């Protein structure tokens, strides 16, 4: 949005909620619900169509599976008069290892709607290759390195500051801190992390697992920690706004999700110089290069996951080597780089506009 304002465009945003957004000329509160069966989405579709038809946008950029469905259907008529529609797929629900129901439901929808898409942006290589090989009918299929991570905000502490900040937050200099920020749900699979820690708790006496986030399975995970006698070693931090302060004091990022598009939480950890031990999925495959910045493990292999934790704990040299690898790998995912990649795509459609028509442009995001 900042980039569009810098180019002199008028920026409107439609999303659920009333949060104030920077670089926005107008915000529409549209009741888009996650569930495709929620009747509120009919109202959301009608409202989106009214706004699009009324404002005659030159570019519409939509996100999320349901937002992408509603916006592209609502913009069908507008495209006939020159509006360009861009859709970013933040990880197709159909992918290798996904349930067959996901392929039966989401695949035909995405493939059908691709014909109403001028630019389909994917954020990982697997989705890009899938869209190309399955001949999605978008006019352009692009690969951008995610939404970008702010490497000025997320960056390593010096050793002295790391010690200082640890003490402030009540952690010891010898503590071995593992970090994961995610909603507590079936997909994020925090149980793997708790079980892995429990399996090697005697070998890792200083290890502490910090879990940031909320969700329906938090209490279940707390109960599991108690059952496995690691409740004193697992901290449930709840919703946090200071992730950029927590990550740099930690030693290792861990991730246990079953599915990911391109996980921002892992990119932020890497930018802070943390190596990563993570479950195998397309998003983690994209970010983690084994023996360079971390290790990948099958999501049910508690034994191997635990072994990697022990390896990291026992070797400061390995920890430092893989941490440096994270910083090297994350460069192409920086906010600066991804903003450039998006600007190339946007500029293509800006050039298509007839400047004689108007010097006043509108983008709808």
Automatic annotation (TrEMBL):
Gene3D superfamilies given in the database record: Glycogen Phosphorylase B (3.40.50.2000)
Annotated InterPro entries: Glyco_trans_1, Glyco_trans_4-like_N, Glycosyltransferase_grp1
Taxonomy, superkingdom: Bacteria
Pfam families: Glyco_trans_4_2 (PF13477), Glycos_transf_1 (PF00534)
Keywords attached to this entry: Transferase
One function term, GO molecular function aspect: glycosyltransferase activity
Entry-linked SUPFAM superfamilies: UDP-Glycosyltransferase/glycogen phosphorylase
Residues of the Glycosyltransferase subfamily 4-like N-terminal domain: 4-124
Extent of the signal sequence: none
All copies of domain Glycosyl transferase family, residue ranges: 164-326
Protein name, UniProt field: Glycosyltransferase
UniProt organism field: Halalkalibacter akibai (strain ATCC 43226 / DSM 21942 / CIP 109018 / JCM 9157 / 1139) (Bacillus akibai)
Organism classification: Bacteria, Bacillati, Bacillota, Bacilli, Bacillales
């Amino acid at each position: 949005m900042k980039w569009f304002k810098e180019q002199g465009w008028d920026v409107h945003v439609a999303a659920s909620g009333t949060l104030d957004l920077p670089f926005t000329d107008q915000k529409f509160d549209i009741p888009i619900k996650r569930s495709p069966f929620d009747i509120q989405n009919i109202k959301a579709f009608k409202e989106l169509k009214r706004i699009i038809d009324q404002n005659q946008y030159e570019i519409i950029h939509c996100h999320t599976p349901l937002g992408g469905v509603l916006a592209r259907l609502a913009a069908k008529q507008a495209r006939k008069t020159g509006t360009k529609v861009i859709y970013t797929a933040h990880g197709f629900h159909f992918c290798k290892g996904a349930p067959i129901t996901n392929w039966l439901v989401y695949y035909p929808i995405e493939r059908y709607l691709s014909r109403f898409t001028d630019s389909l942006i994917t954020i990982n290589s697997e989705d890009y290759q899938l869209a190309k090989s399955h001949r999605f009918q978008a006019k352009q299929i692009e690969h951008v390195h995610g939404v970008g991570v702010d490497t000025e905000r997320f960056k390593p502490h010096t050793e002295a500051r790391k010690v200082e900040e640890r003490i402030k937050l009540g952690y010891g200099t010898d503590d071995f801190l593992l970090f994961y920020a995610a909603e507590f749900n079936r997909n994020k699979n925090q149980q793997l992390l708790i079980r892995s820690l429990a399996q090697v708790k005697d070998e890792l006496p200083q290890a502490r697992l910090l879990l940031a986030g909320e969700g329906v399975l938090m209490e279940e995970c707390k109960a599991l920690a108690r059952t496995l006698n690691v409740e004193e070693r697992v901290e449930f931090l709840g919703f946090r706004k200071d992730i950029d302060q927590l990550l740099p004091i930690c030693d290792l990022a861990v991730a246990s999700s079953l599915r990911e598009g391109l996980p921002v939480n892992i990119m932020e950890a890497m930018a802070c110089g943390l190596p990563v031990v993570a479950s195998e999925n397309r998003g983690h495959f994209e970010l983690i290069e084994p023996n360079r910045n971390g290790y990948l493990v099958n999501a049910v292999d508690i034994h191997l996951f635990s072994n990697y934790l022990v390896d990291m704990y026992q070797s400061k040299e390995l920890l430092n080597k893989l941490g440096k690898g994270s910083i090297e790998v994350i460069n192409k995912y920086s906010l600066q780089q991804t903003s450039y990649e998006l600007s190339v795509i946007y500029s293509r459609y800006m050039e298509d506009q007839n400047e004689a028509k108007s010097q006043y442009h509108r983008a709808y995001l």
